[in-house]
Amino acid sequence: MFMRIDHVAIACHDLEEKIALFERIFELTVVAREINEEQGVKEAMLHVVDGDGGGSYIQLLEPLSPDTPVGKFLAKRGEGVHHVAFGVPDVTEAMGEIGGRGVRLLDEKPRHGSMGSSIAFLHPKDVGGMLTELVQARPTDQGHNH
Ligand code: MC0
């Protein structure tokens, strides 16, 4: 079902500071920036490698306000890994299959994700404490990436 790890997301207080850190220590490059009002984040995608059906990235997330998933996470746990996202060929199909195995879906239908992707989250308590995201890359990205 999983084609690749699409991204590992890191919650941070200062997006620009963390972009500079990851560029310096890992020689990564920002390939997309976005404000996602629905998810309450300002984000940057740093390209790691190209893979099956899309690329793999580090995603840096800064909350738009304290009363958002990432804002609450920072207040409770501080900066660090917020979620892991797996690339799937069809997010609706993956939601049905995984949901059918008793995992709570946090989204009833796919939402808008980074770089035109369709995404859905799974409850961390049903995935060993790991907030998990399913990602279907934008159709034009599949096969030849960003
Ligand atoms: C909360 N918990 C987590 C967690 N956030 N565990 C692992 N990783 C996380 N990121 C744990 C808490 O410690 C708590 O456990 C329990 O889950 C309930 O959390 P809460 O603090 O009471 O907070 P809630 O219930 O208000 O919300 C948690 C929940 C929420 C995961 C349901 O954050 C959510 O719906 N997230 C999905 C959307 C999201 O995260 N969007 C931002 C990124 P204890 O043991 O203390 O009870 S959007 C994004 O990144 C997009 C743009 C993209 O990738 O393209």
TrEMBL record:
Family under the similarity heading: Belongs to the methylmalonyl-CoA epimerase family.
What keywords is this UniProt entry annotated with?
Isomerase, Metal-binding
Q: Which Gene3D superfamilies match?
A: 2,3-Dihydroxybiphenyl 1,2-Dioxygenase, domain 1 (3.10.180.10)
EC number(s) for this protein?
Answer: 5.1.99.1
Q: What class of enzyme is it?
A: isomerase
- CDD domains this protein is in? MMCE
Write out the GO MF terms: methylmalonyl-CoA epimerase activity
Task: Kindly give the SUPFAM superfamilies that the UniProt entry links to this protein.
Answer: Glyoxalase/Bleomycin resistance protein/Dihydroxybiphenyl dioxygenase (SSF54593)
Per the record, a Pfam family? Glyoxalase_4
- Per its record, how is this protein called by name? Methylmalonyl-CoA/ethylmalonyl-CoA epimerase
Q: Where is the VOC domain?
A: 4-137
